[in-house]
From TrEMBL:
This is Uncharacterized protein. The chain crosses the membrane at residues 26-46, 52-71, 115-132. It comes from the Bacteria. Keywords: Membrane, Transmembrane, Transmembrane helix. It comes from Corynebacterium tuberculostearicum.
Length: 152
């Protein structure tokens, strides 16, 4: 009897994990497509859209992107045993920051160039999807820096 119960519980956990990961992947893809599309629209019709709308959109989307990227881990840093050992930034983290901030720099050069803007923002959308799926901004996914108190 216990064997059947354990099999059922294992099956339920596996189904739950699969559905959560699929839903998370779909949301990440949708998020990347919406932001890339909005950047494309803003780069092509910048004369119609006021500057304050673009600035407000940039602040909101970058904040949301950082929030989604940082808080997708399962363990909060405050639950770790040693509060002095914090994760170190790595190449994936800095690459993720570059991906997040890059539309600010190349948007002005793409105004009026529809095909180049479509290609650039499609590539940016793919990199944004990678950023969200890989957990590049998630501090819990990196090893700790070893700054513990036991070295004193």
């Amino acid at each position: 009897m216990d064997e059947y119960v354990r099999e059922a519980l294992d099956f339920n956990e596996e189904v739950g994990r699969k559905s959560k990961s699929t839903a998370k992947t779909v949301l990440h893809a949708l998020f990347a497509v919406v932001i890339a599309g909005a950047y494309f629209v803003m780069s092509q019709w910048a004369g119609v859209i006021p500057t304050w709308v673009f600035i407000a959109f940039m602040i909101a989307m970058l904040g949301l992107l950082f929030w989604v990227g940082i808080y997708q881990g399962n363990v909060r840093p405050s639950y770790r045993q040693d509060p002095f050992k914090e994760p170190e930034s790595d190449k994936k983290f800095y690459g993720g920051l570059f991906v997040c901030l890059s539309p600010i720099f190349f948007r002005p050069f793409l105004e009026g160039h529809m095909i180049a803007a479509a290609i650039a923002f499609a590539v940016w959308g793919v990199f944004t999807f990678w950023l969200l799926e890989s957990g590049a901004l998630d501090p819990a996914s990196r090893p700790s820096g070893g700054k513990g108190t036991d070295e004193q």
